[in-house]
Write a structure and sequence with these properties.
Blueprint (H helix, E strand, L loop, with lengths): L15 H16 L3 E3 L1 E3 L2 E3 L4 E6 L2 E10 L3 H18 L4 H17 L1 H12 L3 H25 L11 E9 L2 E5 L7 H12 L3 E4 L6 H13 L7 E3 L4 H10 L5 E5 L2 H12 L10 E5 L4 E5 L5 H13 L9 E7 L3 H13 L19 H17 L1 E4 L14 E4 L6 H4 L6 E7 L2 H8 L4 E2 L1 E5 L3 H10 L4 E4 L16 E2 L17 E9 L1
Parallel strand pairs: 1-5, 7-8, 7-10, 8-9, 10-11, 12-13, 12-18, 13-16, 15-16, 18-19
Antiparallel strand pairs: 2-3, 4-5, 6-21, 14-15, 17-20
Helix pairs in contact: 1-4, 2-8, 3-5, 4-5, 5-6, 10-11
The chain binds NADP nicotinamide-adenine-dinucleotide phosphate (NAP) and magnesium ion.
NADP nicotinamide-adenine-dinucleotide phosphate (NAP) binds next to helix 8 and helix 9.
Length: 515
């Protein structure tokens, strides 16, 4: 039987001692800003002439760190190292591989506030959002460690007299891990450790906006005693080295989380057979979202408004699960909209190192420009109810923004904005609301706020998303509790943090012996 799995509790920041501890961690991290981080291949630190700079999005003059940048030849070197290391790592027993993850998660737990403080500084997360990101990284490691023990234990097969049959889940080979910046610790660590605990070796290319947190995570793997070369850290520009990594004939699989555009490119390049390549590459790609909250006419309207605001504006809407579409029954539309606007008015935005602010900046100049351009589009497609403005120039601040009366086919209702912008559309009835909810090419998360059992049953069947939530927000999936992944253009529905995830990084081998 699988052991009980308990999620890491979130830190209670209403307690002064916890706030003091976190403040101390922030002060300590601030003493360490501006350092340089090298590429790491087989444990060897490699410094390159070309460097990338990670900055604090709350204060764009503050450098978090500089990072060496891998070019094509270093990318190639990392793959060859991973190929060699695979020969020894694949022979390490699964239970022993799991113990590296238990150890790493224990170290991260001890250094929890420190890592959360790095997240505040490098990605602009609030204390609570950063704390949840770190907690999720701890959970992923413990969960995948338990899962590999389960997956590699003996599987009951139908007995056949005179034969002994056994099914083994064996590793694939070298994996390229390409995570996004928006859960720069949790998703990066989850993708990386799922691959290695399954017996694969990894070339990790962190997101260019958040490479320092990944470098800090490499320290943890090192402290946990992970053999050199099992994870190779090669920061560098995705557009420059991404193709080399994906197309390489020795690459066995690519584990990607990020935008639809990059995910589709990876999928296409990986499908092409290269000279000397002995397998079909596997692609695990989790991509964008355009997520809706549907509000029924008999719903708890306060719950509806709170759910919309929390899902739309937590971490400035920069979650693949964020609510960017509120689809509200016409009978309660005005009331829900008014309450959302009132709640949005209370949201505080600023330098997120301060405790108590609800949300901080968006992550970088590119995101800032993109979101502001969507706000201009929104002004032509709907009625601006609140927000629509920049904040202080010190960082990439954008006010939480609500647009009303947006056509379900409008760009604001169809394209992923990935910022603090939510569009309201009016539905004639519940069926119409579901029809609007399903009208995008994405299918990641969604929520229904309703008291009507029949409607909930209908949504259960017809609301076509990977993660569907009733009478709650559509963000905040917990490892092991809400396995996460989306339909359609949201990706391959890999269900990270779920019982089937590690099968994606293994292949099943049947051995049959005539007795
Ligand atoms: P992104 O621009 O696609 O980048 C993701 C990663 O891909 C980064 O490491 C990036 O490197 C790399 N990359 C860029 N071009 C590449 C190429 N040609 N080949 C290989 N790799 C390449 O996405 P993002 O802006 O970081 O993240 C936001 C997106 O992620 C949103 O669409 C969001 O919905 C999605 N997301 C999805 C999930 C999910 O579970 N479905 C979870 C979180 C986020 P550089 O940084 O160097 O460009
Ligand atoms: Mg990007």
């Amino acid at each position: 039987m699988q052991q009980a799995y308990k999620n890491e509790p979130f830190t209670d920041f209403s307690k002064k001692e916890n706030r003091d501890d976190f403040q101390t961690a922030l002060n300590e991290v601030e003493q360490q800003l501006g350092k340089h981080y090298d590429i790491i291949i087989r444990g060897e630190r490699i410094r390159t002439k070309k460097t990338g700079t990670s900055i604090n999005p709350s204060n764009i003059e503050e450098v978090i760190g500089t990072v060496s940048q891998a070019d094509k030849s270093l990318a190639e070197q990392a793959i060859h190292t991973a190929v060699e290391t695979f020969e020894t790592w694949k022979k390490v027993k699964p239970s022993a591989r799991a113990r590296y993850l238990y150890k790493a998660s224990a170290i991260l737990r001890r250094r929890k506030h420190e890592f959360s403080a790095w997240l505040v500084k490098e990605s602009g997360k609030s204390w609570a959002e950063a704390d949840a990101d770190t907690a999720e990284a701890i959970d992923f490691m413990e969960y995948y460690a338990r899962q590999i023990e389960k997956l590699t234990s003996r599987h009951p097969l139908t007995r056949l007299t005179g034969e002994d049959n056994e099914l083994y889940y064996v590793p694939l080979g070298v994996g390229i891990v390409i995570p996004p910046w928006n859960f720069p610790l949790a998703i990066m660590a989850g993708m990386t450790t799922a691959a290695i605990v399954s017996g694969n070796t990894v070339v990790l290319k962190p997101a260019s906006t958040t490479p320092v947190i990944a470098a800090k995570f490499m320290e943890i793997l090192d402290d946990a005693g992970l053999p050199e070369g099992v994870v190779n850290y090669i920061p560098g520009s995705g557009s420059e080295i991404g193709d080399v990594l994906v197309e390489h004939p020795l690459t066995r699989f690519i584990s990607f989380t990020g935008s639809r555009e990059v995910g589709l490119r990876i999928n296409e390049l990986a499908a092409k057979h290269q000279p000397g390549q002995k397998w079909m590459k596997r692609v695990v790609a989790e991509m964008g979202g355009k997520d809706s909250i549907v509000v029924d006419h008999d719903a708890d309207l306060e719950l509806a408004a709170q759910s919309i605001v929390a899902s739309a504006f937590g971490f400035s809407g920069q979650k693949c699960s964020a609510c960017s579409r509120a689809i509200v029954h016409e009978e309660v539309y005005d009331e829900v909209l008014a309450r959302v606007v009132a709640l949005t008015k209370e949201i505080t935005v600023g330098d997120i190192r301060e405790y108590g602010l609800y949300t901080g900046p968006v992550v970088d100049q590119q995101a800032y420009d993109k979101i502001l351009s969507y706000i201009e589009i929104g002004k032509t497609e709907g009625k601006l109810m609140i927000g629509g403005e920049k904040g202080s120039d010190k960082g990439y601040f954008i006010q939480p923004t609500v647009f009303a009366d947006v056509d379900p086919q409008a760009r604001l209702m169809q394209e992923e904005i990935f910022g603090p912008v939510v569009a309201f559309a009016k539905a004639k009835d519940f069926d119409h609301a579901l029809e609007i909810a399903n009208n995008t090419e994405y299918g990641l998360t969604g929520a229904v706020i309703s008291r009507n059992r029949e409607h909930l049953e209908k949504a259960r069947e017809e609301f076509h998303v990977g993660n569907l939530y009733f009478n709650r927000k559509c963000t905040g999936a917990l490892v092991g509790v809400h396995p996460f992944g989306g339909f359609n253009m949201s990706g391959t529905d890999s269900k990270a943090g779920g019982p089937d995830y590690l099968q994606l990084f293994t292949q099943a081998k049947l051995v049959s012996e005539l007795l």
